[in-house]
Automatic annotation (TrEMBL):
SUPFAM superfamilies for the chain: TPR-like (SSF48452)
SMART domains, alphabetized: TPR
Protein name: TPR repeat domain (Plasmid)
Superkingdom field: Eukaryota
Phylogenetic lineage: Eukaryota, Metazoa, Cnidaria, Anthozoa, Octocorallia
Source organism of the structure: Paramuricea clavata
Amino acid sequence: MCSQDQAKDLNPNIIESMKNSDIYKSSSRFFYDFGWDILPLTVLRSFFKSCIKLAEDKEQPAIQITFQCLVADQEGRRTAWKSTEYIGRMDAIKVAFDKNDAVLKEDRSVYRYCHCFYARYYSNIPTNTPYPDLLEDNLTPLPENNDRSPMENADEALILIQRAHLNKKRASKVFHSDKGKYEDYMNCAKSFYNQALSTSQELLGNHELTCKCHKFLGDLYLLWRKNEEAIGYYSDAIKLSKKLQLDSNEAFVYLLKNDGLCLSFLRRFDESVEILNEARDIADKLAQKHSPCRASVYYVLAGTYRAWKPDCKEAAKYANTAIEMREWLDSRSVKTMEDIIKTAEGHME
């Protein structure tokens, strides 16, 4: 699929093989979550676009929209959710979602995924009110646990994660305006993440999805400013990632970066810097020199050194590197880096 010329018709033998495959029909989202560690991003993008074209030709809107979501998510991650292509793809997904509402509802898993996927994007827009909740009454019922296939159980875990992400996003939006709602959303997110973790542990055991659930719970507690709880989940995620040899990719860099940030909030600076330097070493070895991932690591390293040793040259060194990647930092973060550099220059005079 990936080696075919997108401008030409696909080889019929490939089409026949693909349209009957599990990756195309049912497990694309599960594959996507772990394909980052198997294939280059350009190969994944080509593969997903081929699947979109195939689904369009076969008039399979649910499959087509699912792969459109995967391409949009990949583009969003690549550009820190800022590119016009990402926004355009999300707008197109909403049009397709509304047009095919009845068809999508026939597939409980796909409908829930698409709803949560768009709702999270919608919630990222500061002026928007919360996107409507997903109403279970409008969906086909979930089969009893004993009647579910392994893929249905995995899908259920992925949807729980999506719903948790959405509630965490909603919590962030009301943090300054409604503390009661903030706590409600955070507790709801915690419940969904814990359900996903239990499902993954029971179904898959030591698996990358289980790693992700530990990491997501750590992120939730970090946002909640419950740093001791966050450290426990980050530690479990790091140990399992290393056990599974998933410790040389971008996802692991983000995990280490967040763990290091959490340690710095607890003023455990020696440990924090050790973890962050491990993240930096991996980020520096990844193919893309300027990326959101690498920028965030250098940003946190600079901030950690400033909090630990305000007159330390290391803070300015990392801040200068972060500034070189200013396109991946928001304006407030850029200002923070500039302040660190200015402070260091003042100490040198």
